[in-house]
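Working notes for the structural subgroup meeting. M.R. asked for a predicted model of this chain before we commit to crystallization trials. I am recording the input and output together here so anyone reviewing the notebook later can reproduce the run.

Input as submitted:
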Amino acid sequence: MTDGSIHPLHADMLLAMRRLARSVAVISCSHAGRRYSMSATAVDALSTEPPSLLICINRTASLYAPLDAGADFCVNVLSARHRGIAIDCSGRLKGEARFTTGNWQTSVHGVPYLHDAQASLVCAQDGRFVYGTHTVFIGRLTEVLVSGEVDPLVYVNGAYTTARALVSHAAA
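Returned structure, recorded in token form:
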């Protein structure tokens, strides 16, 4: 049994999740004249009919308030060359400073997106639900922009890496 400080399932889950390699995305939005962004791996396809995604956002994140207010958002799938942007948007920089690295544009729907991301999936909010510390936001796709070769930035075991590095390591 536990002494009450940390539930053993909590610690075990964190340890297990370090083994789940995920592509890194930056979620971006605009609300009340301000832009917001954050790095995330809790992103996934939801449905192809209608084309939709889901994102899971901690309610303590700065991105949460504009999303909770109904802001549309973009899921920018990062390539290996965007490691610096992932770091900037994961807490190193705050607010508008997160948009000083990279070629940020504004979609026809008014949502900021990273112009040279592997993919930028612009979404209109189409539902949400609260679960524990997070809210799951559903985005119905309104625009998809794709560029470059498939070369995802990956987060695994607490570090950024690339799919190529993972494949090379596995082959060794």
